[in-house]
Design brief:
Length: 236
């Protein structure tokens, strides 16, 4: 089911388009296919959150959303701002027989069309590298997170063996991918994300940096959104 539409980025300004969506769908259904069930299991085992609402941000063809729905009782919302990606997602969700478990939501991470404190688990793979304003995106993510909920947001391949086999296949097909991926997964990029997270004022976060990728885990203890930076500085 498509549960909403909210776009604040002009389509012409976005990367990808029809060709991008078709490519990502093909990669997700072939070379990347084995990583999603492993990433889903890692997330569910790590956090022990197996019911409630899970939001997959930048869900693309919905492969991770599908893997999470298969392995848990979570209701999944697959959020993406690209309607061609959402068309591919709808096909994949229908083929998987999961139309009653995964809702499609067309929207931008910088203005998530969901209420405060409404989501039990937020996941996102391979999307944050495209976000234009990381502090704004993470403030939005924090806002919709329920107290006690967690996020697992980043880029990764499940484990180091999968990383090796997927990388080899990607480099054979798209040689330019190697450099791009190396840069995304570098310690320097992790440090850049850490700096941007500091800017948000989010009180509790952790970055898991391993051999298969890196993931940002936010935890929330108080309900509501973050106090606006300038306002809180004025109060001090
Ligand atoms: N998560 C999927 C996966 O791992 O198979 C897709 C990853 S694909 C590389 C990145 C996705 O993020 C695309 O579907 C793109 O449309 C989406 N995306 C990028 N920026 C976004 C934004 N600001 N808001 C919502 N979705 C976004």
């Amino acid at each position: 089911m498509v549960i909403g539409m909210s776009r604040n980025t002009k389509k012409s300004e976005r990367k990808g388009g029809k060709k991008g969506a078709g490519n990502m769908d093909e990669i997700a259904r072939t070379i990347f296919a084995p990583i999603y069930p492993v990433i889903a299991k890692n997330i569910l085992d790590r956090f022990g959150i197996a019911s409630g609402v899970c939001l997959d941000i930048g869900s693309g063809p919905a492969s991770l959303a599908i893997a999470i729905a298969r392995q848990s009782d979570l209701m999944v919302i697959a959020l993406d701002y690209d309607d061609e990606m959402q068309e591919a997602a709808l096909r994949n969700i229908t083929d998987a027989g999961l139309a009653g478990r995964i809702d499609l939501l067309c929207g931008d991470v910088h203005a998530i069309p969901l209420p405060d404190d409404s989501v039990d688990l937020i996941i996102s793979r391979g999307s944050m590298f495209f976000w234009e304003d990381i502090p704004t995106a993470f403030r939005e993510i924090y806002r919709v997170l329920k107290p006690g909920a967690k996020t697992c947001i980043g880029g990764g391949f499940g484990n180091k063996e999968l990383f090796a086999s997927v990388s080899a296949a990607m480099i054979r097909k798209y040689p330019e991918w190697e450099e791009k991926n190396k840069e995304r997964m570098s310690a320097g990029n992790v440090a850049r994300f850490r700096e941007m997270l500091e800017e948000t004022g989010i009180p509790h976060y952790e970055i898991i940096f391993g051999e298969e990728g890196f993931w940002i885990v936010l935890s929330k203890s108080e309900p509501g959104a973050l106090a606006h930076r300038e306002e809180s500085e004025e109060i001090r």
